Amino acid sequence: MPVNPPQTRRKRHFRRAAIGASVATALAAAAFTAMPASAAPTTLAAPDIAVENVKEHLTAFENIATENGGNRAHGQPGYEASINYIKEKLDAAGFETSVQEFTASGSTGYNLIADWPSEGSADEVVMAGAHLDSTGSGPGINDNASGSAGILETALTVAKEDLKTNNTLRFAWWGAEEIGLVGSGHYVDELPQEELGKIKAYLNFDMIASSNAGYFVYDDDADLEKVLTDWYAGQGVETDVDTEADGRSDHANFDRAGVPVGGVFTGASNRMTEEQAAKWDGEAGQPFDQCYHQACDTMENVNETALDRNSDAIAHAVWTLTTG
After folding, report:
1. Cβ pair 302, 150 in contact under 8 A
2. What per-residue confidence (pLDDT) applies to 4?
3. Are 224 and 241 within 8 A, CB to CB?
4. Does 45 have pLDDT greater than 50?
5. Is the pLDDT of residue 9 over 70?
6. pLDDT over 60 (residue 139)
7. DSSP3 helix / strand / coil % (the chain, rounded to 5)
8. How many CB atoms lie within 10 A of CB 285?
9. Pairing assessment for the beta strands 167-174 and 107-116 based on DSSP bridges
């Protein structure tokens, strides 16, 4: 996540008619508790995402950084190696992948897009995305190998389960986020308006394993926020509305284009309050991520409990929004 927001997001607290029928149906199942059971639509429950598998991806990203100058930054060999690592796994799992090139700061950047083959509606797309690049100062394991690994393992679980979706399910790994949300901005700007209008939800996962983790949920779209907050509540985890990441990650580009956005975040350089520490068993007065944009953002900087919970939250959102 960049240090300074390149733009201010536009908040949307009202119900979005733009969310497609498949999304609305899934949400209605949770919202209207008085509906007779026989009349309620069936939403498939997401399987548990094995945190050990997510950690294996993180270890791979750390090894890639170690072998390529200590980072996975835009324009550096570690970033391209990270793209290749993910693409190889998705291709083997049966995803339809494509690599989108762009130029930023004089170097070629890459986005990786992966669609899950499905008989679901091609006119309604649900996306989950994360930026894959680090800063030049370190391997970027929490920021943001954590989100990248979480959606990767969710995608691989989709393939393992041979998930039958009601719409198109798309995953994305963005380049050059750390220098101004460039990769996702390029994707949004290059997408024809007709195709952009098909995206009914974009979920962003940028930093999901901060060492002194908080549990923040984006409040840009009320429906998508509810999908996530209800899940955390069911796990006995209190959440707060995210403010630190406002306009500072890839969801901002989708938000400005009118796409409903949501996501989760465990905090960066802001400091945890006494109240937050009490409900999250954290350290008050300390940053959520003490190694934010530093060389110490390694595997030792990862909160495994947060990584596990948030990977499961990703899967819950994907299953809810695609199978309702």
Report:
1. no
2. 61
3. no
4. yes
5. no
6. yes
7. 40, 20, 40
8. 11
9. antiparallel
Task: For residue 10, give every residue at least 6 positions away whose Cβ sits within 8 Å of its Cβ, in sequence order, or none.
Answer: 255, 256
pTM over 0.85: yes
Beta bridge partners of 98: 113
Model confidence band, residue 51 (pLDDT cutoffs 50, 70, 90)? very high
- The set of catalytic residues is 177
DSSP character for 265? E
For residue 222, give Cα distances in angstroms to 15, 16, 19, 140, 262: 6, 8, 11, 31, 9
- In order, the DSSP letters of 168-222 are EEEEEEESSGGGTSHHHHHHHHHS-HHHHTTEEEEEEE-----TT---EE--SSH
Q: Is the dihedral of CA 249, 254, 258, 260 positive or negative?
A: negative
The lowest-confidence range among 3-17, 86-100, 201-215 is 3-17
What is the rounded average pLDDT of the residues 175-188? 98
* Burial environment of residue 92 by CB neighbours within 10 A (0 to 12, 13 to 18, 19 or more): exposed
Beta-carbon contacts of residue 145 (< 8 Å; ≥ 6 apart) = 57, 58, 61, 62, 72, 82, 132, 134, 139
pLDDT value for 8: 39
Nearest in space to 82 (alpha carbons), one of 131, 115, 155:
131
Report pLDDT for 287.
98
